[in-house]
Each structure stands twice: as C-alpha cells, then as structure tokens.
Amino acid sequence: MADPTKEEMDYASGAGTTKRKELHGTKSLKAFSGTWARNHAEVTLQAYILSFTSDQSGDSFSSFVLLTEAKLDDEVASMEVDLFLIPNRIIKTSVSPCGQVHLDAHQVRKSKLFHEFFFNGIFGKLFVGTMSSGMKRDFLLGGDNDSLWGTSKMYLLLPIETSVASSPKHLNIVWKGIDSCACVVEYLRKIYSSDDGIYCSNPLDGDVHSLETECARSDIIYLANTYVERQHLKDMVVYAIHTGKIYSVLDVEMGTSSEDPFYQNIDEKSPHVSFSGYFCKKYGIVLQHPGQPLLLLKQSHNAHNLLIPRLKYEDVTAEKKIIPAHMPPELLVHVDIPTEVMKSFYLLPSLMHRLESLLLASQLREEIACHPSDRHISSFLILEAITTLRCCESFSLERLELLGDSILKYVMSCHFFLKYPRKHEGQLSAYRKQAVCNMMLHKLGASRNLQGYIRDSAFDPRRWVAPGQTSLHPEPCDCGVDTLNVPLHSKYVTEKTSTKIGKVCDRGHRWMCSKTIADCVESLVGAYFVSGGLGVAAALMRWLDFDAEFEPKLIMEAKVNASLWYYLPKLKEIEALETKIGYNFSVKGLLLEAITHPSQQELGIGYCYQRLEFLGDSLLDLLITWHLFQSYQDIDPGKLTDLRSANVNNENFAEAAVRHNLNQCLQHGSGVLLGQITEYIKCIWESYDSMKLLPPVGKSKGPKVLADLVESIAGAVLIDTELDLDRVWEIFRPLLSPIVTPDKLELPPLRKLIELCDYLGYTTSTRCMNKNDQVIAEIAVQLKDSRLVRHGCDRNRKSAKAQAAHHLLKDLEEKGISHAQYVSRKKQNGKKVDESCHSAMSSVILEVPRESELTRPLLGRQNMVGLLSTSELSQDISLVVEHHLVDEYSKGSCAIKLKAPVVLLIKMQKGGPRSTLFELCKMHQWPMPEFDTTEEVSRNPIEFKGLFGTRTGFNAFISSITLHVPNDAVIKLVGGQEADKNCSKDSAAYGTLLELERLGWCIIKDPS
C-alpha cells in the first residue's frame, strides 16, 4: 500500500469526532433517473399502484399509479407505510406492482402537463415574477417545459379509478381528468398571452359571455371557462386566474355578491372597498357578473410530514382552523378532477420521500453485494442503519450502532487473538483500539462513499419537488464545489460551531458531523448481523476493507497451543469448575489458562488468563448486547445503552463469580488479593442474607480479578467450541442471571439528578476537593424558591458525587419532585414544571415596549456576538465564578449573587436574546425561563416591525415569559408580535434582559 499523501494525512487528522464537520454530497437515485420525458415519443414504463385507505369511514382518497422507466426493488415495490393526519387519522398506504403501461406521445405530453399543473399549483407556483416587483408575471407553463424535467428524477404520478385500483390487470388511468387538465393549460396559455398584462383584462369575454342570453336561469353560475348548475359546484376543483392557485368549492354563499365589502381579515370586512373594486384595482379585472353569489373555497396548503405521528409533537385534540376564501365565480376555471384526487396529492410527498429513501437503501445493498445472502437483507433495516436522529423519524441508526459497536469489537478481538498468539493483552488491546476507533471507521466508510447514502436531516415537505415542479424554497449552492460528490479534502472540513449540520443545497451538498460516518459503519455492521449472522457481518467488514479473517487453522493452532499446558496437578480444580459452569472442555489447558492469575508467572508459569480475558471481554459484551437487542425491540436506544451498561460491567461479573463460587478455582499467589476477595465475598453474602440489595452508592466494589476470571473462562469456552456463539451463550446465560431488565434498571444517581434538573430547567453546580485520601464532593441545585446542597465522601470522585446526588434526589422527592414523575413519563399538557412547585413570591408584570418606544436601538446589530469573553470586560468585572465573592450557601440558603452586574453583548438575530438570557441564568444559577406562545391567523399579509427588522406574514405570534429569580421576584413579561414563534420568544427574552438590567443584574453593552 502506498504511503498516504500530505493532503490525505491532513484530511484524516481529527476525523471521526463530533467536533469536526465535513462537507459531503448526496448519492443520486438510479431507479428514478432517465431521459424519456424529454424525448417527446411513446414509451413503455413500469407501473406501481399507490393505494390509500383511511381508518375512518367515509374518508376516501383516490389511488395513483407510479410510472418509472426502471423496475423497482421487489421489497420496495410491495411496501406498506402509515401516514398520520390530524386529528387522530391514519392512512394505510400500500405499493403494489402491476406490470407495464404503454403511453403514446400524446399521452406522455398530457401526463406531463397534468404533473406540472397540479404539483406547481398546489405545492409551488404557476406564475414567474410578482406584481409587487413591477415585473410582468409569466405563466410557468406557457411554453416548452422540458427544463422542469431533470434527468435525476423522472417519473409520473397519475390518478387511477379507485374502484379498480385493487386489480393490477385492469389499470384505468383517469384520462378524462388528465385531458381536462391539458385543456385548462391550453386555455390559460391563451388568456395569459395578452400583451397588455398578465392576462387579458376581461378574460370572461367570449363564448361564456355569449351564452348568458341563452342560459338566463337563476341556478346557473358562470365560471371563467364554462357555466354550471349551482347544485353541481360543491366539491368542484377550480383554478383562480389571478392567483394561480388551486381550490375546491365548499359551498355557494347565497345572499352575497361581488358588490359586498371585501374581507380584510378572517372576521372583518372592509367598508371602503367591494370585491369588484378590489379585483379591478389590484388585478385590472372588470367582473362581468358581479351579481353572482360568492363561492366559499377551501384553499390549498403546504404539504406536511405525515410519516411521524402528530401525537408526539402537538396537541391533536384541536385541529387548526380552516380559513376559507370568498371569491367571485367568474375568476375560477373548472378542472374536471374529483376532490379525492386533490386529497391524495397531499399524501404523495411523504409517501414518495419514504419510497425514495427505501430505494436509496436498496441501492446501497446492491453496491455492497458482498455475500450470497445479501438479497435477504431488508431494505428497511439498511434504511434504519443510514438514518440519523436528525431525521426525526420513528427509527434511527442508534440501536444498530450499539450492536455494531459490540460486533466490531468482538470480530477484531478474535482476529488479533488468533493472528498474534505471542502478543500479550496490552498489545492486543492497542491493536483493537486502533482498528475500531472512530478515525479508522470514518476512513473506511468514507473510502466506500457511505457519506453519500447517510440521511442526516429531517424531511422538509416544502423542499420536496416532483418531476416538472419548481421549488418555492431553493437553496442555491455556494459550497465551492461544481460536482455532486465532494472531494475528501481538508478545505471541506471545519470545526466552526456556527456551521449548520444537515441543511442540503440544491446540488445535494450538506455539512455532516464527522463521527456520523463512523456511526453509520457500526450500524451497517449491526444491520447485516441482524439479517444474516456473523458470517454476513464479517463479509461486510471485508467489503469495508477491515482486515478480519477467521481462518480455521488459526483456531486449531490456538487449541493446540493450549493443550501443551500441563494440567494434571490441577485436574481436580478443573473438573470442579467444569461442573459449576456446565461444560466439559475438550482442551483442558484452555480452562487452566483461564483460571491462572498473572501472579503465578513469578513461579515460572508461562501463561495467564489475560489474553483469554481480552477475548472474553468483547465476547460477553456482544452476547449480552445481542440478547438485549432481541428481547427489547420497542425500547429507545438510550435505554438500551443503559441496559447494556447495567449488565456489562465488572461489578456484575464479579458478583456472578461469587454466586457460583468461581473464585475458589482461581490460581494465584497473592495474599493481598486473597484478603480483598474474602472481604468482598463477605459483603456480598451479607447483602443477600438481608434480602435486599444495597443502593448503588452503598455497594462494595469488587476486585477486578473476579470479573476478569468470568471473562477469561468465557474466552476459553469460545475457543474450545471453535467460536460457537450460541453454545457460549447457552452456557453463560444462567451464570450471568439475573440479567437486568428495563423494569429493574436503576440509573446512577448523578445521571438521574442531571436528567431531572435539565428537564425542569434547574441549574446545578458541582465542586470537589481532596482531603487526605478522600474526595469530598459538593453538589448544589437551585430551585425556584430555595437552594439544596449536599455532600458525598469517597476514595474517588465518581463515588463521592454519586453519594451527593443520591442525597439530593431524596431531598427533591420530599418536595414532590422525582425522576420517575417527570423524566420517565411523557410530558402532560405541554407543561414541564408542576405548578404546585411554584412559590408565592412577588411578581413583576411587564409588557415589552414596541420598537418605536424602546430607548435602545434594536436594528443594525447583525455583527453582535453572544456573552462577552473575560478579556472584553472591564478590569473590575469578571465572568469567572471562582474570582467572585460567593455567599456562603447551604440547604435552603439564597442563590449565588455575583459581586458586580454581568456585562452582556446581545447577538441581535434569531436565537440571540434567548441564548444570552440562558447564559445569564446559568451564571447566576437561576432556573431556566418558561415560555408560552399564542398564535393568531390572518387572511391577509401582516407587516411586522419586529425585533430583527420588518417582515410580512399571515400568522402572528406573541410569547409570554416567566423567570424566577430565587428569593427575589418572579418576572412575567409579554413580548411583541412577531412573524414566527422563535422570534416572539426572542422578543420576550429581550424585554426580560432589559428588565434585569433595570434591576441591576446585568449591563447590556451597546455594540457601537
């Protein structure tokens, strides 16, 4: 192998860490690529029916057919997925293959127009340019639209007759509706082709107007392109010629007309302008039938992510209010498509996103193709292995990563143990550490371009586009890379914390945490192990260029080498141990080696258990992890990690050795060790006799040699059975029982305390000091009305802090605050803190002034930074807590009070005021503030003169904030009206900072 170049060495340095971010590309999907839509010719395509079934009666959706040039993977072509609507509606979606469909050139053209019209009309826009800019608006579909059909994403989604959707042999595409759509496009091209405006000033002149005398009936309603009887309008799909939007008719508003006052807001009418006047002034349209009743229309809306149960993220008991539109009928063009088709359009983005993701996973499986059984590996499992938590899916790679970590550790342990029979345990550990470290995993994964397959950002339906659709939210590429793939070069690496992870530009480039690639390698190994066992996982590792071979001759050599140990003098101990573990060794020397302590080497014995202990350590880790993975498939990855930690540790293994009297067979020559073992055994049996286990902080620490003994015996059994994992687990499961289960899982006290305080927004502080050979730990928790302080004392910091945390948890329980009550249960009613915990302190009720009323300038602060560093402060002020005079504190005393007000420099952009306030709370050790936000919806755009400048929007957000200053006051404040939720929180946070400055807690520095 050639020596790495300097560029390669620079790139590899620091790889695989969470701190480092790398720019990477995204793999294109081969299954949807093609050029056929640009050929203007007949074509034969593969057809797949997309069926939608609601769990509620009377809720019907039209089925669609997906037409692609390539044949899809069999598993993907028969997938099922649930889509979640609110309130509490589930749409069962299924994909099924139905052979091939031949389209002639005319059908291809009309199908493309259908695609372009509906996907742009519902999720995009059909006009190019805006009236507010003074530019003429052009009809998007006015000419040749081949540029809308990129070669990387080419397929058709067409509606089919629902009644026959279940019969693949009789596929009836709704050609009547598609032809109607094509006619509508031709009609729109005609009326928008006028030279004196966006469309002709009176588009209703012509055939429809001439029919007025023939059809002068009261039940006739004139639309832009036709006339219909009033009773047939309900549920009709229409297109508005002035907005370019698609609607469905809810009802005819009898008793109204275009001479009525125009609606400015939801429930308000403008007394100064009528509908006729509004459309004439803004659009230059003179209505020909102003006396017709207005139509009540259901507006099209953005697509939503329907792959995640809405129950997890919002209160589903209240569905958002539907805001209908009122419109004169003659501005609307009839499109002969059932409303069931319109409803199905909103399901397509989520369904196609899942289908595309599965196809990408299938493509990766085909690329790997390293084992005959690869075809049996589920695309869903590979999809899970390449999906990070940032995707906000109901699954992620976390569980498989945990399993893959154990597999890699075990495989490399076996490899080095067998390959280097003369290397001692320390050398083998060093080899293994280097082979499975994140830097190496990153190198191997990146060399196979796994980064192109990793899904690392949440599905954003607003940026999803179908073939023939333009994006409303483009992200132009400014990455400095002209190709889809990004070279593995150090100039595309950064450690800046401001770099946004996961945001994808229009060329598919995105910044990714370097460790994510290493995690994906582990999760893929886990996925292949789950699907095909160790052989398939090892084959994947070889594809990734791991040097990991299990040669049978090396296993036999290990057994032969162990058979040379003279075991007859210890035959009695060996046989007794075989009885205890329930296994008879074919090579007794393996067991003799497994029970021989290194102290025996001083007597001239040339072997000890350390090599087998190295092997058994990774073996038991894998066996227990695999058992937990299979047994508890519904628990989250974090709890699975906690379960593994609770079962795979020296304390558990030492107790297992004592329970089964394995220590009696240990061959050693150390009197000190004998005393430690004897004392530990006494403590263990005393705890068993009392019929209760000691709390975690009270358990006696077992000598590591006992855990090593269990691991080395496991390693010996593995070699004797020639790496038969099932046989080893059959032997060791009873020895390791009882295995900790989720209901018996006890988290470490410090972990529980931190989780509880983080959840409730309480701050904690910890400090330790050494006194003689003891460590004294002090942990303080600041509540809203008091400060709790507890101490712990032990020989090491971890145990001392555990004791202090254990006492604090007891104190909190006395106040009705427990880990089980808050962290272990889902949030209720969106409230984090029990109102009963609030103390009756004085409240300061404030309202933040509007921008025009503030004495501080709010604009032009884009270059601000967060909290000032120490060097930026005046000499008599410091942010380092140790340099302040801190009030003596104990249980129930006041909070920390700094010597001088803290100088702040607020970053005046979204998130800046909140971050500064949070940092100030941490500095003073106050509870975190609580926000409550309300939303108001408007029919017309609202101009917001907000904290960060002027914006427009249809939704207005107002946030209130509550901040508890312990033993001082409760600040309650209402922020200004903003265009989005987070900005409204920033407004409230900024007002709170101003009030805290007034009260003397801080000084806000002017950036000028």
Automatic annotation (TrEMBL):
<dbReference type="GO" id="GO:0004386">
    <property type="term" value="F:helicase activity"/>
</dbReference>
<dbReference type="InterPro" id="IPR036389">
    <property type="entry name" value="RNase_III_sf"/>
</dbReference>
<dbReference type="Pfam" id="PF00636">
    <property type="entry name" value="Ribonuclease_3"/>
</dbReference>
<protein>
    <submittedName>
        <fullName>Endoribonuclease Dicer 3b</fullName>
    </submittedName>
</protein>
<dbReference type="GO" id="GO:0005524">
    <property type="term" value="F:ATP binding"/>
</dbReference>
<dbReference type="InterPro" id="IPR036085">
    <property type="entry name" value="PAZ_dom_sf"/>
</dbReference>
<keyword id="KW-0540">Nuclease</keyword>
<keyword id="KW-0943">RNA-mediated gene silencing</keyword>
<keyword id="KW-0539">Nucleus</keyword>
<dbReference type="GO" id="GO:0005737">
    <property type="term" value="C:cytoplasm"/>
</dbReference>
<keyword id="KW-0460">Magnesium</keyword>
<keyword id="KW-0677">Repeat</keyword>
<keyword id="KW-0255">Endonuclease</keyword>
<dbReference type="GO" id="GO:0003723">
    <property type="term" value="F:RNA binding"/>
</dbReference>
<dbReference type="GO" id="GO:0010267">
    <property type="term" value="P:ta-siRNA processing"/>
</dbReference>
<feature type="domain" description="RNase III">
    <location>
        <begin position="361"/>
        <end position="533"/>
    </location>
</feature>
<keyword id="KW-0479">Metal-binding</keyword>
<feature type="domain" description="PAZ">
    <location>
        <begin position="218"/>
        <end position="336"/>
    </location>
</feature>
<keyword id="KW-0347">Helicase</keyword>
<dbReference type="GO" id="GO:0046872">
    <property type="term" value="F:metal ion binding"/>
</dbReference>
<keyword id="KW-0464">Manganese</keyword>
<dbReference type="Pfam" id="PF02170">
    <property type="entry name" value="PAZ"/>
</dbReference>
<keyword id="KW-0547">Nucleotide-binding</keyword>
<keyword id="KW-0067">ATP-binding</keyword>
<dbReference type="InterPro" id="IPR000999">
    <property type="entry name" value="RNase_III_dom"/>
</dbReference>
<dbReference type="GO" id="GO:0004525">
    <property type="term" value="F:ribonuclease III activity"/>
</dbReference>
<dbReference type="InterPro" id="IPR003100">
    <property type="entry name" value="PAZ_dom"/>
</dbReference>
<keyword id="KW-0378">Hydrolase</keyword>
<keyword id="KW-0694">RNA-binding</keyword>
<dbReference type="GO" id="GO:0005634">
    <property type="term" value="C:nucleus"/>
</dbReference>
<feature type="domain" description="RNase III">
    <location>
        <begin position="574"/>
        <end position="722"/>
    </location>
</feature>
